[in-house]
Amino acid sequence: MSDLITPIIMPKWGLSMQEGTLSEWHVEEGTEISPGDEIMDVETDKIANVVEAADGGLLRRRVGQEGEVYPVRALLGVMAPESVSDAEIDAYISAFEVPEVEEEEDTGPAYEFADLPIGRVRYAERKGDGVPVLLIHGFGGDLDNWLFNIDAIAEAAPVYAIDLPGHGQSIKAVDNPGLQAMTDAVLAFMDHAEIDKAHLVGHSMGGLISGRIASDHGGRVASLTLICSAGLGEEINRDYLDGFVAAATRRELKPKLQHLFADQSLVNRAMVDDLLKYKRLDGVQSFLEGLNASLFSDGKQTESIAGALEAADLPCQVIWGAEDAVIPQTHAGAIASARVTVVDAAGHMVQMEQAAKVNDLIRDLL
Q1: CA-CA distance, 66 to 60, in Å (whole number)?
Q2: Among 3-7, 74-78, 318-322, 324-328, which stretch is predicted with the lowest mean pLDDT?
Q3: Could you tell me the residue ranges of all domains in the chain?
Q4: Are 305 and 312 in contact (CB under 8 A)?
Q5: Engineered SS bond to 331: which of 24, 148, 233, 316, CB 3.0-4.6 Å?
Q6: What is the helix (H) or strand (E) element at residue 291, kind and residue range?
Q7: Is 2-104 assigned to CATH 1.20.1080.10?
């Protein structure tokens, strides 16, 4: 078999992904592909997203068919130089075997649980050397908001992502939900994981939490990346927040979730159903109502981190989606000393819509 053949396979985004639908090819056979080129769209039970080429080469064969479901690691395409014969490519495709996912679980982030003073929280971990990166999601989210980021960032450093209390698979019964409870939980998790200092990456409310930790416990923060962060201004989309908290049906929730993305087609049925299941768990509704009232009272942000971070001697960057419909993109310049990047073709969930760009920015700061 020619060692000049490079496979294109179904990616694995997160520990729970077992299969995906090849929604659309973006490249034709005979196209010269460069690393990072957008080559296809794949939809999972979590979200649809574009697949970027990990390797470069001449696309000789599109094996996967649009609209078909394929297991993780299935062969979707073949790249090879013209010197490789069609017969060799045919033989490669015929001989290709999809690896058992279970045999490769140790290559992806493992879900674990930590018992903290506030209760049990779920987290994902990717081991490595150096100062770790801690990913902190936003209001109503969970660690799967980092599906497209964990592995890429782990190429540069160890990575942890947590479900904040009240979210995901962490404890739901939280007394006095607010910023202090969230920051205390993150610091307790760092103690549990024996993380003396971390690069904090926070999205939306997670940015507010990260910034407060950086201002109050600067010795524990190596750098700060704020993504569409709360805490940098007063304005916020009250229709989204109140609508998300109140929504009890698919019809009510879906239009609220569409505020999160520049490409609203990314809000698929599975995403809506997963969030409805979460919102129907015991304790979640009262928790979200309490947290919303504490942090975003009367449709405005009640907490600010901009001034404290301006005075902090800390590497800091701000990343924003140009089409953010939840928190105004104008807040990106609130910290004059921070490096600011506004990413086109992305909304509030820029780390999902433009994952490669965001991953590069985070690794650059490390």
Answers
A1: 17
A2: 3-7
A3: 2-104, 111-365
A4: no
A5: 233
A6: helix 284-295
A7: no
CA 171 to chain centre: 21
Which DSSP string corresponds to 154-187?
Answer: TTTS-EEEE--TTSTTS----SS-SHHHHHHHHH
* pLDDT tens per residue, range 153-166: 999 999 999 999 99
Q: Nearest-CA neighbor of 176 among 305, 289, 297?
A: 289
Classify 111-365 by CATH class.
Answer: alpha beta
SS3 116: strand
DSSP secondary structure code for residue 354 in this structure: T
Task: Examine the pLDDT at 317 and tell me if it is beyond 90.
Answer: yes
How far apart, in whole angstroms, are the C-alpha atoms of residue 98 and residue 102?
Answer: 12
Distance CA(86)–CA(260), nearest Å, equals: 45
Contacts of 267 (CB under 8 A, 6+ apart): 254, 257, 258, 260, 261
Q: Whole-model pTM?
A: 0.81
